[in-house]
Amino acid sequence: MATQVFKIPEIYRKNAKYTFCPGCDHGVAVRLVAEVLEEMKCAENTIAVCSIGCSVTLYDFLNLDSLEAPHGRALAEATGVKRAKPDKIVFTYQGDGDFASIGLAESMHAALRGENLTAICINNTTYGMTGGQLGPTTILGQVTTTSPTGRNLEYYGYPIKIAEHIALCDGTAFSARVSLDTVPNIRKAKQAIKKAFEVQAKGLGFGFVEILSTCPTNWRMSPDKAHDRVREEMMPVFKPGVYKDITEG
Question: Which of 49, 126, 184, 241 could form a disulfide with 78 if both were Cys (CB 3.0 to 4.6 A apart)?
Answer without folding.
Answer: 49
